[in-house]
Structure formats: C-alpha cells, structure tokens
Fold these 2 entries.
Entry 1:
Amino acid sequence: MLTVWSWIFLLLGIATCALIAADVRRRPQHMAVMNVTWPITGLYMPVLGWWVYRKMGRAAPAHHDTRHQHGDHEHQGGHHHHSDKPKWQGVFVSATHCGGGCTLGDIVAAPLATALGFTLFGSHMAGHFLLAFIAAYAFGILFQYLPIREMGEGSPRSALINAIKADTLSLIAFQIGMVLWMLIATPLFLEGHMDATTPGFWFMMQIAMLVGFLTAYPANWLLVNKGIKHAM
C-alpha cells in the first residue's frame, strides 16, 4: 500500500512541477532563480504548489505590455514584483526560496549516499543526513547568492557573506524539520533503511521537505523582522 500511495504523490509532485515550469517559461520571474525555485516547490507540494504559485508568485506574461497597467513602479520588463503581497506571503515565498536550494541538495545527495553506502560513525542514516546537509547548504547559499549578484549589490565576496547571513538559519531550520521527519518515518515506514532507489523513500522525503518548509517559515519570519533577509 505504501508503494501505491508513494507513486500517486510522487507523480502528482512531478506533474505539479512540470505545470509550474511550463507556466514559468511563459511568465518568467523577475528574479531568475525563482524560475527554478517555483517548479521545485511543486515537487514537495503536490497540487497545493500550483495554487501557491498562482496566488503568490505568478508573473505577468513575458509579452505583456506594462504601458497599459497602473502602478508602473511594480513592473519591469513585464515582470510583476508582487511588492504588494501581505507580509506572511512575502515570508512564505522567501521560505520557498530556501526550500528550493535545500530540496535540490537533498535530491542530489540522497542517491549518492545510497550508491556510496556512505556512513558516519557506522550509521548510514547519519551519513545520509551529513551529505544532505552539505549539499543543501551549498545549493541554498547559491540560491541566495545569485539574486544578490543579479541585483548588483556589492562585490562577489560581500554578496557571498550576505547570502550566508541571510540563509544559514533558514537552511538549518529546514534541515532540522527534514531530519526529524525522516527519524520518525525511517523505522516506522521504511523498515529502518534509507534507500533512495525506492518510491517509499522519496514519498517520505517529499513529506520531510514539507515539514522542513514548516520549520523554516518561523526562521524566515525572524530574519525578515531583523532586516537580515527581505520578504519576497
């Protein structure tokens, strides 16, 4: 039964990802990295991700003529900035930004951990968590660094420092949520084995990413309140 439900939700996630990706191609985001982030969000938010994208992130069509719109200050090259979003939505999008990097890192790290049989202190689970954190942190900081450089804020060095300041807490919070869920799910649903070749593992990871998003949201709220990170 787990396998059946796993395939249902994994396929729904892939379909949501593909649907968002197709729409983003017609409606490019103001920040290029969000063209990748939004489809990734669909992977761990099956169906719901499409509603979230439509509600909080969808830009105007690329061919849209902004001269016929009110509030030209909110448009640039036909891309809506969504600067009028409520704060909770801006923080939500900031959390998806963090989640995109973390999720991509985990997607890369999990098959490596399984293929290499990587362990830490003799534990395959701990080895998986270590590789996942390293990859997630690298991709997460990259996802933060690229928009900072895109906006031309400072030198590459200062952009990297700002990216680390802005996303480290959020990334750690996301990973904590993921790890907590996998610590529960692995013995309960996966017979104690984290095997990235099985659909059940990826279904549990899909849930773990959603839990990670929930634990990262308060961290993003705090970072925005402190002025360390901007609501998106």
Entry 2:
Amino acid sequence: MASPAASEVYIVDASDRYHAVEALWREIGTPSLDKKTVAVKANFNSDDPFPATTHPDALEAILGQVRDAGARTVRLGERSGMGETGAVLKNRGAADVAARTGAEVVALDALPPGEWEAIPPDGLHWERGFLIARVFREADAVVQTCCLKTHRFGGHISLSLKNPVGAVAKRNPEDGYNYMAELHSSPHQRRMIAEINRFFPCDIAILDATEGFSTGGPERGTRIAPNVILASTDRVALDAAGVALLRLHGTTPEVMQGRIFEMDPIARAAELEIGVKSAEDLRLVALDSESKELVLDMRRILDETA
C-alpha cells in the first residue's frame, strides 16, 4: 500500500448518526461495492456500552450504507479480547443489527485453523508473526469503525490502527501459542499494533467520536463528548486527527506529549506506508458549519506538533 501524497479526514456533526454516516460515505466516494463481498470490523472488545464499543446506531448506519451500495455478501467479523465474542455481540445489540441488515456474523474465536492466514515475522516485532482472519484478507472490500479511546494497558490510544487487533487470533489453534500475551507483554506493543495494519486491508475507516474516553480505556474511562464522527480512507491520518481531538479535550500524559507523528503506532504505520507521513499531508475537511470551528482547533494542534 503506497502512502498517498495527501489524505483527507472528513468531520461531521454527529447529532444524527444516520445522517452523519451517510454524509461521510457520500463525501469519501467509496468505490462501488456492487456484487462484492465486504468484511466489516467494528469495535466489540468487551461487553460494555458505547464509547467502549461500537454504538448499535452507528453499526446499523454503516451496514446500511454497505448494503445499499450493492454488496453481495456482508460479514461482520469480531474477536472480543475481554469477553466471549458471541455473547458480547448479542448483549451489545450487534447481532440484532446484523440480522436486520442482512449481515453474517463471524465470531473469529470459533474459526477453524484453515480460516486463519499465517503472517511470517520477517521485518516485524512479532516473534513468531501472527495469524489474521481470512474473512478480512480475502474480502473484496473492508470497512471498519472504531471509537475514540485511550488505552491504559500499554497501547496509549485505541483508534483505527488498534482496532484490527481484534482480527488477529488470540492463540494459535495448532499449538496454543498466545499471540495476545506476547503483544501485551512486549516493549514493542505499539509498533506491533501498527504492523498488523500492513496485513489488514481497509477501504474506509469511520471514527465515532460522539463520545469517547480521554483517560483510561478501552472499556471504561473519563468520558468526553466531542459529538462528531470522522472518516477517512487513510488510517494514519484518521488516528492523527483522533489524537488531536483527544488533546483538545485533555488526555493522558502519554497522548498529550510530543509530536503526534512520532507516537509509536502512528510513526510505525507511516514508516510501513500505511498512510501519510506527516501532519502537513493531512487535510481536515468539515462537512457542516457545526464542525468548522472544531476543525480549526484540531488543525492548530496538528500544526503545533508537525
């Protein structure tokens, strides 16, 4: 994936999630999904309500856009790190939303060995590489939606680059090796998170920042309410904008300090050419009058740390 010369991050008022997602989808100009297989990765890491997990209204709006774009098959793939995936999806309303919109739910924990692709460790900080679900690797298109959160277990931020951790196997089904134990105990955790994205395709990423956690996370924390939704085809640009939004509200020392593009997950993802390499190559676009002042404030923060 070549880094684009410049990437847009679109921002819209989130008072009406359905209208917001529709506006973002239209502005980004997503390629045709007609008769295609689309994999969707939401954020259902734990059995906790939004902003810990994807809001059911946001999920329904996104799945609706995918369906209306003509997708032949839509699969919602998930692995919950803090709970049993099937129960989490049911309790958080995701299973009902999927049923209403005609999407197939794929609980990644239950996949047989043949449904995982082995990624070798060459050039990575993963000791043995890792396994990633083929439902995402083999889809014609991938859409993901994430939340605005900090991460107190070493990730520092939990945005679009962190979300694909839920597409990686917890354990190797053949020998039981625990990839998540390695990830969470490694001093390279944040770089390893970025490296997953090299093998996780993503056509559009949507960040629901209607509310968020400015400290704590990923399942609980200090709540903030920016009341916007952001979207981009560039996960690096989207996460840089998300960090600017967190800084605007006051966040953890790890997230407040230093240059945004020198933060480990963003820097490593940029190095791997997953997205833009600097704040100068990131363009914030307000889609309504309510978001214009916020965009100016976020731009100021990005420029201060460029």
